[in-house]
Amino acid sequence: GSVNTPIGHVTGARSVSGNFTCYLGLDSSSNVGTSTDFFADMTSANAKSKTVNSFNTVFAIGGASTPFLKFTMPTAHFEIPTHNVEDVIALETTFQALPSTIGGTNETTLKYRGATPDV
Length: 119
Prior knowledge:
Blueprint: E1 16-23, H1 35-43, H2 45-48, E2 55-62, E3 68-78, E4 82-84, E5 90-97, E6 109-113
Antiparallel strand pairs: 1-5, 2-3, 3-5, 3-6, 4-5
């Protein structure tokens, strides 16, 4: 017999979803790219007047060069963020990566790079 032989394929639907929590902060010099900027964009009158389920989203985890992990979701759907005021004031939201078409498989792409050893 064979031991630890991988199966040839994976069955079932793929789902890419999650949530994130970030501190709600206000930097007096600039709010561009901060949680305050995100909340203002998602709760503006313009954003609430229409339903949009197509946000080009990139989660970059780690450094700019190495090591890093980057999730690119070209058509992600976000729910309107909520505040959490338990220990600190935080912003919580959930997301789901969606394919560009019903039969599509382009919900997300992953790019990763590990630390390079010293030569």
